[in-house]
Amino acid sequence: MTTKFKLLTVVAIFASIFYSCDSDDDGTSYAAPVLSDIELGIGNSHIAYLGSDLHIEIEVVAEGTIDIIEVEIHNEDDPDGWEGEFIYDEFSGLLNTTFHKHVDIPDDIDTGDYHFHFTVTDMQGNQTSIEEELEIQELIDDENPVITVTSSPAENATFNNGETISISGTLTDNVALAGMLVALVRTDDNIADADVTGSNSSVIVMMHTHDFTDPDEFDFTASIEVGAAMDNNMTPANIEGDNAWESGSYYILVKTSDANGNGMVSAHYPITINL
């Protein structure tokens, strides 16, 4: 009886394990991914420029979780013309995301009408695609954008923990703005202006955007609280490690660029932080 009981117990355990594993795959069907709030090009213009990059922003919701996202751009009139294919797997496993990327447009392809395809595939293999018209143009522009700061801290003003640092102004361009950054930089780090970027982990990002409702003019106000845990990057990041808050001398720097890659950098606006 004891041996029989043990045998039945083992069988029951294996049956339970098999059932549990099988029930994890319950056959649930999920709706195909949903795409909305599509922005293509600066100010949703559906225009890209040779030798520049194309702004893409799309809201993605996938009940079955995202597997992969694909972007394809091809010439509408010439099947042998340039075709760009871009695959993104960093969103895998997410139920939703704001897809925000800038893809490079070569400077040696034909101008004209192109098709833009955006496809999201979920973990079940469900796909949703959109197709948009895109015009690629040549942009002849050697004029830099202009930064006008209208409000900034007094020179060497001191900010204590919990106080807010702010700067405001206007960006203008003769054709189209492409991006802007406002950063708080430690003076002792001796970072060249060219190296102050949204991806530099040694600076504190007060504002970073490539989205301009009016492509040739943008009013901005950038601010951050001293001691804040997160920055104001496009994807907020922790303020820690190389850019952790410290007492000492800092300066605010404003940078912008236009659709042809012409850039402008503001003066340094020095402040002191006292933690």
How does this structure look, described?
This protein has one helix at residues 2-24, and strands at residues 34-40, 47-49, 53-61, 66-75, 83-88, 96-104, 112-122, 127-137, 146-151, 157-160, 164-172, 177-186, 204-209, 217-225, 248-258, 263-265, 269-274. It has 275 residues and is mainly beta. The protein folds into two domains: 34-137, Immunoglobulin-like (Sandwich), CATH 2.60.40; 146-274, Immunoglobulins (Immunoglobulin-like). Strands 10, 12, 13, 15, 16 and 17 form a six-stranded mixed β-sheet that branches. A five-stranded mixed β-sheet has the order 2-8-7-4-5, with no helix packed on it. The protein starts with a helix and ends with a strand.
Quick tags:
globular, mainly beta, disordered N terminus, Immunoglobulin-like, 5-stranded mixed beta sheet, 47% strand, 2 domains, 6-stranded mixed beta sheet, 17 strands, 275 residues
Structural class: mainly beta
Give the end-to-end Cα distance, rounded to a whole number of Å.
75 Å
Q: What order do the helices and strands follow?
A: HEEEEEEEEEEEEEEEEE
CATH superfamily of the largest domain: Immunoglobulins
Q: Which of globular, elongated, flat, extended, rod-shaped describes the shape?
A: globular
CATH architecture of the largest domain: Sandwich
Into how many domains do the coordinates divide?
2
**What does the largest sheet look like?**
6 strands, mixed
Low-pLDDT stretches? 1-24
Share of helix, binned: under 10%
**Number of discrete helical segments:** 1
Average the pLDDT over all residues and give the rounded result.
89
CATH topology of the largest domain: Immunoglobulin-like
Number of DSSP strand runs: 17
